[in-house]
Design brief:
This protein is mainly β. The chain has three helices and 29 strands. The chain is globular, with a radius of gyration of 23 Å.
């Protein structure tokens, strides 16, 4: 991915290096990192299979989207179960749906649940009752409303739904023809953030932002079948986004680490560069990073294979672990066909992020980019690293530049100014927020169980 273009790449690299070095040298004192306080409430470890989204309500109750078990639960402020809002069984009368759904805060305490299978959005009131239904936006966009890796959708002050468009913007390429090699289209290095009016059924574009660009390779087997695979870049320079509590959009730019705030009328205000200790990477550093990333994926494959008893789990692990390496977080596995000699239709395997089988039926070899394709300075954040709280602030999960005891989030105000730095415990991730400094944390315990904890962030 490239933000700037120059006929002389060496001059461009030198300019970026000097610019980042100058920025790093002029930052002055940085905020200290603090730990999150102890939780004030927690679920039991066997209540949840996953926490894809959390919706805090004004009375302290919380809706939780458990995609693993295909349920939406209503919990009280002490994290005790009040009711099952939607389930994968017929017990509630409100079926969750056949696919993993999405949970999107709406006006007041109302919330939309997106069912990708029926292309519908069910309106849930403050009591956990389904009180209305609307058609979802364009059918090809429903995945962006239910896959956390695609960002966190939200509504602006005018009631328009903001999310990432699923129009990937592939360019070029050629349709497969018998006797001719398939020419793949060029994957995009940016995506559109769009705004959809549910009443008028109209869509417009808010902005474009940088996403990981997939490096696609193609090969043909002896039977004429085609296989498409992707080489992974575990350290791309990307942008990310979040919808703030007032409905404006915060776009966090990865090239120089600053925030663009776009209001409901499309007016953009750019914040100053956020102070950051940029870490220069030597060729040895880059190689170590590639090796460690590959090892992490291999270990995840082994874990998932053992858990599932087959290579299916390993392929699923590839999708989950490296979804950001292709299409900016869109997990995708496709099987395509083309007409072969004599009218046959040998399969075309499309392996996104290394998610498809190899000739032996197991996961394909893990392919990484060369060290020359990694940036000279480690990026501040990766794909799907930005969240907005309910107090108008942006949380950015940073890529460590040195060993830490847990993930570190930088907290920016609604002008893009750094106001806090928070470390969460190892093995945990921020699942959502409540007004007044409330943070919801998903935590795996020693037995592998998942807990949702409620924390009040002090000043």
């Amino acid at each position: 991915m490239s933000v700037m273009r120059s006929r002389n790449p060496h001059l461009l690299s030198a300019a970026l290096t000097l610019g980042l070095a100058a920025t790093a040298g002029a930052q002055g004192t940085r905020l200290a990192t603090r730990n999150l306080p102890a939780p004030v409430a927690s679920t039991e470890s066997d209540m949840l299979g996953s926490v894809a989204a959390v919706r805090h309500l004004s009375n302290g109750n919380v809706l939780v989207n458990d995609q693993a078990r295909r349920r939406v639960l209503l919990l009280d402020k002490d994290m005790k179960l009040i009711s099952v809002v939607a389930d994968s069984t017929s017990n509630t009368g409100n079926a969750y749906g056949a696919r993993q759904g999405g949970l999107i805060p709406y006006r007041g305490d109302s919330t939309y649940f997106v069912d990708p299978a029926s292309l519908s959005m069910m309106l849930i009131d403050a009591n956990g009752k389904i009180v209305g239904i609307k058609a979802a936006p364009r059918p090809n966009d429903v995945m962006a409303l239910s896959v956390p890796a695609m960002g966190t959708p939200g509504f602006d002050a005018k009631g328009r739904l903001i999310y990432r468009s699923m129009d990937f913007g592939f360019r070029g390429g050629a349709r497969p023809e018998p006797g001719k090699p398939f020419v793949p289209p060029t994957p995009p290095d940016s995506a559109a953030l769009v705004r959809f009016d549910l009443a008028a059924r109209k869509l417009d574009t808010v902005a474009f932002y940088k996403i990981p660009k997939a490096n696609v390779q193609m090969s043909q087997d002896a039977n004429g079948g085609m296989r498409v695979s992707v080489t992974m870049n575990p350290l791309p320079i990307v942008d990310d986004w979040a919808v703030l509590s007032d409905g404006s959009v915060a776009l966090v730019r990865g090239q120089d680490y600053h925030v663009d705030i776009i209001d409901g009328d499309g007016v953009k205000k750019s914040g100053e560069k956020v102070p950051y200790e940029w870490q220069r990477m030597t060729d040895d550093d880059k190689q170590r990073f590639l090796d460690s990333a590959k090892t992490a994926i291999e270990n995840l494959r082994k874990t998932q294979t053992a858990a599932n008893g087959s290579a299916t789990g390993a392929r699923a692990a590839d999708v989950g672990a490296m979804a950001g390496a292709a299409m900016g977080g869109a997990p995708m596995v496709m099987t395509m066909t083309r007409e072969g000699p004599g009218g046959g239709a040998p399969p075309m395997r499309v392996d996104i992020g290394g998610a498809g089988p190899n000739a032996a039926g197991g996961p394909p070899p893990i392919q990484m980019v060369s060290i020359s394709e990694l940036p000279d300075y480690k990026p501040v954040f990766g794909n799907s690293s930005v969240r907005a709280d309910m107090d108008g602030r942006v949380w950015v999960r940073t890529i460590p530049t040195k060993p830490t005891a847990g993930p570190v989030y930088e907290v920016l105000d609604n002008t893009g100014k750094l106001v806090d730095r928070v470390m969460v415990p190892a093995g945990s991730t921020i699942a959502g927020f409540g007004a007044g400094g409330i943070v919801y944390l998903g935590v795996r315990d020693a037995t592998g169980g998942l807990k949702l904890q409620r924390i009040t962030l002090g000043k």
